[in-house]
Structures are given as C-alpha cells and as structure tokens.
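User:
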Amino acid sequence: DDRPLGGRSGSEAVDIVFRPTFCRFLLDSGLVTIDVEDVAERGLPYHHAVRLFDALIGRNTAMSAEGALPGSLAFATIDQCTALITQLLGQSGLPGIAAWAKFEQGLDKADGIAERMMGECGRALQEQEQVAAVKDEFSETTDLRPSNDFRAAMLGKFGSPPKMFEGSVGDWTSGISKWAEVLAVHSSPENSLDRLEQKFALDHYIRDMLLEPGCVHVCFKYSAVLQRLFLGYFDEHRTQTMPHSVAQRHLRHMSFAAFFRFCVDFAIFPQLCSFDELWAAYSSADCVEELTLAMESETAMAEVGGRS
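Assistant: Predicted structure:
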C-alpha cells in the first residue's frame, strides 16, 4: 500500500506493510517457526519476530499523517521491514551464508504464493472486464446516463407503486429514474473494477489476520478439541500427491454440508450468523494442502474409516 507519512499534507508516499501481511510473509517464507521444538532447526519463534514488528507501531503511528491511517492499523515501511528481516536473520543462530541461502529458498516460495494470489485477482478482473464490455443496457455517453431501453425496463418492472406508497405516481416514477441513474454509474467498468480490487484487498487482509499470533495461539491451545470435532463431522476423503513423488495419500475432508451440520448442532446458525455468512466463511477458507476432488470410491472410504 502507498500512504503519506509525515505531519503535513503533500508528504511523499511510501510503501507500507500492515501487521497481518507481515505475519503472512513470515510464515510463507519459512523465516520463523510456530513449533517451539523446531526452533533450533528452522529459525526464530514466530511470536518473537512479531514482537519486534510491534515495537515499530508507536513510532509509525506518530509519523503518520492525521487521518491517513486509522489508529488500529499497525504498519511498517518497506525499509523498516527490510531492516527487521536482516535482524531476524542475524539472530537465527545459523552461519551468515547458510541463513541467507535458507531465506532465499523461503523467499522463492513466498514469491510463488504472491504470484498465485495476484493471478487470482487478475482472472477476476478479466472476468469483470468482459462483463463490463457488454454495454447494451447503457449509453456510451461520458456522464454514464442509463439508456432508454434500460430505463424502460426499470419502469416496466417497478412502474406501479405499491399500496403502502404514500406519494404520487410522479414521485414514484422520478425515484425509479434516479435509481436507474445510480445503477448506471455504479455499473460502469471503472467503478466495477475498483470495487473488485478493494474487495480482493479486504478479503486477503482478513485472511492474513487469522495468522496473527493471537489467533495462532488459540488454535494451538485448543487444537486437540478442534481436531476431535473435525473427526466427528468430516464426511469425505480427498487424495493428495506427495511432493516430488508419485505416491498418494488419503486425507479427511469436511464438505460444506458437514460444516453446516456442525454449525447447527452448536447453535452457530442461526444464533450467531446467517447461512450466507457461513457459506462465505467456508468458501474463503485456505487449504494448507493441495487436494483433488472428492473420492467416490466406497472401498477407500471404508478402508480409511476402518482405521479411524
């Protein structure tokens, strides 16, 4: 992100990294570890690295321009992140050459993940551009006024006011026309692409928040309970091809139907969230292992189920 830093408007914009994004980078690059027993082999503890990042928050908040960033958004500049990474490499306990070689391997992995994420956004933008290229319903004027056909379609669908409407027919028709104008403006290619980019950035920011130390701590603390719940509700198996091998293994998987059953049993639905919110949460979940489609072999299901 580019944000102005400094106490006055017109300050030079600099690249910044938000705290959840930095947490994602630490784990994707393998620079740190969340397994305490594996610290000697892989690097510094995850929480230690994030605490070093948090030490920059107060200074950066004071530097930020008034109104440029909400106070709840912790961030660091690119130069600060570079210095912090160098400090982490120096504290890894490995020889300098070995530490940099290991970090470069992790950096290639993180770069590949970032490229796939940008490719996902690019495909969504291309699809949106194709949809936006269909301009049959809108005029090509620069003021983005709705075409006569689109206005007529709106009036044909909503032309008769309901009995509860207290205004006149003219008021209702005027409101429908203004509604058509608003739809035309917000359906323009430029506005549609801007909304899509903002949604993509927000979705990934929220995903990255799930990797912050507080969330990771809760997952580790209650991992045994969560694992037993998963074993009680999973309903299918998927196959995974092992890296650098032709061998495959069967992994348990929970479909949305099973996830929804869990939410009903524990009163998550409808007391805490709606069906649409559950579907959005399930659809946006990140799988840490690449899987194939659901297995249809009842033999494999019975074999794995017999070992459970």
